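Narrative progress, year one. The postdoctoral researcher (J.K.) led the effort to move from monomer predictions toward full complexes, under supervision of the PI. The following entry was the first complex the group processed end to end, covering 790 residues in total.
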Amino acid sequence: MKDGNSLETGRIPTWCPGCFNFQILAGVKKFLGDELKGGKKKDDFAIVAGIGCASKIFDYVNLNGLNSLHGRVVPTCHGIKVGNPNLNVIGFAGDGDAYAEGMEHLIHACRYNSDFKYIVHNNQVFALTVGEPTPVTEKGFVDKTTPYGVKFMPINPIKTLIAAGCGFVARVFADVAQVDAVLKEAMKHKGFAFIEIIQPCLIFHADKDYKSKTYDLQKAGHNKSNFDEAMKKASEWDYNGLTDKTKIPLGIFYQKEMPVFEEQFDILKDLKRKKIGFGDVKR
Amino acid sequence: MNKMRFNILFGGSAGQGPNILTSLVGEALVKQGYYVFYSRDYQSLIRGGHNFNVLTISDERIGSNDSKIDLIVALNEETERIHKKDLSKNGLIIKAGENEENMYFAGAVFKILGVEFKILDEELKRLKKFYEENIKHAKAGYEKEKRSLKLFGCNGKLKSVGRFFLNGSQGTCEGAIASGLDIYYAYPMTPATPLLFELAPRQAAANFLTLELESEIAAAISAMGSAITGAKTMTGTSGGGFDLMTEAFSMAGIAEIPIVFYIASRPGPGTGVATYTGQGDLKLCLNAGHGELFRVVVMPGDSKECYELTNQAFYLSQKYKMPSIILTDKHLAESFYTFENKSKLLPVEKSTKFGRYNSYEHTNSGESTEDAEIIKKGFDRRMKNERDVSIECGKFEGIKVHGNKNSKNVIVSYGSTKGAIIDAIKDTDCKFVQVLYASPFPTEKIKKELSGAKKIILVENSSSGVLGDLIREKTCINIEDKNKILRYDGRPFLGDELKEEIGRKMK
């Protein structure tokens, strides 16, 4: 049953048994639960999702928001933030959604620096449409639509986002504690935050032991305020499959405070000061 | 033509400032009590080329220019060369000379029209910028020009009671602000951008926000995001940009999001003709968005109707939580109309509280569903909404009837052709049925006006006569191809030419 303060929608997730998306959902709920315990209200948050397995999370987290269109999570989040700058907006999308149709918006989001958090579940495949390659699938990947294999190198989203001027670029593995921890860090960051979660797809892009290849950037003493260092770390893994030598750095690659979109328009600053949205403005 | 219809053409290259000059003369004459209509013809370039404005003056309401020009103001030599053939008998030309500044021509025009210099002085004071320089040039023009038509003998005889002189974009802008606009999203595209030009400078004073984003897709989707938080939101573009917005439009249908789309058409398909006019997008508005979704489509015919129908678009979309479209075109968006007063607008209540919205078919609490019963209920709810809107719209003017209301000769049209048609049918046995709503379509009202007609003539700025198709679909009344007056060269109808054309069709 749903009640007003519960994060539960009463829906039973339709992800495959054992899917890493359950880890992400649990991490998100841990984060939100702690935020509510810390005094925030459920109505202080908004959830946005696109279309795909990742975006099913909209049905399992009882927050106000919009289950939007494929590729359009970023402008939806931005629009909600403009409509009411007091809301804590979190967007969820898969790698197909974010990096194929959604890439144009993602680059511009770095420039606008609207204060919302964007989470990309990267399983390197279009899973809900049964296994086609996305822009981050490794070269040579074969499926029914691509019988001769993918001919192109994958995009490296971490490098792309750092280069585009994103003020918070992080990557974690689909693990409850990691998801919870990175969301807490992202929430403290003022401005647009990009978080990629490596979420192997058990059916169409099986876990080739990604987790064992990972290491923690912060524990390794990475200087996240240094652009060149961040680019170097981002280049350590090119998303093009795994080898014996593969090292996948996790954690915050880059962080920099920059002017926030909502703080650059008097009318939005005013709404924030009054703790209201445009919907509350009487004319 | 009637001597109280006087056409002045201001021509020059882009950058010479024919617009400031035309507006200045227009404003001054409106204040003198005249009715002024002014349209712009400009090319898609920034400097050079050939641009011209035609300003028509009358002592009664007008909405079009004529093909014959009574006074040519040639800011460059090319203007005279191109337009000399259009000069009426006894028509005059103010020729381009050396070192003649913009306001020199204003002075000369005022002299020829027989308007006192102090009225020009007042207008230049209102402009503020470069007053000292402007007044010097204006005086030179007024003194050097020896011809005078004294056509108008106005100088305070006719009294204008605070008349409005606005273009369609300004009418839409005023209507949106008066309806409580919170946020306007756009991406630049002619001829919709003039609305952004009007809105952007007024945002601080009227406490709303305009935002230009990276694409029409971003503009429309962000508009959805803002609208679900309760903001009164509008987005605008031309036909090509609206193509990109249609996925958001479709989502607004199923997620039941109140949102207003403004479309200013130009000839298509594709990039078409960027700075000219056309009415080819009516079916786009009616059919945009996959799936079955209802929308409101209003079609104003002048700047006053832009003001009123923008308000109705906001009212209906907020009340029934659905997308509305305001369909205009370049000719309407950028032409200036004189009208007496603004109508009282409907108060627009904000309808939306932030909640859980979904582009999937969804349950009441916003989760996606594949349940047969809920899917059907969703359609039923939206169809009921459609019926409710149709009933409510019955109280609005879905159509307007102009001219001889008992005539058996009926002209049907919509949008920016209104002015030329009304001008063309003066003193003729003709009734003009102007359609204001394409959706919900005022079927019964139109049936009533068209049944019993001896001849039905369609006038439209398109190659296919889209409104004719719509009328046949909704009323089973067929307008024969030979009774269609279609113009599709990017130019608007002219009052005198259309009068002849209608005369031929009536025979």
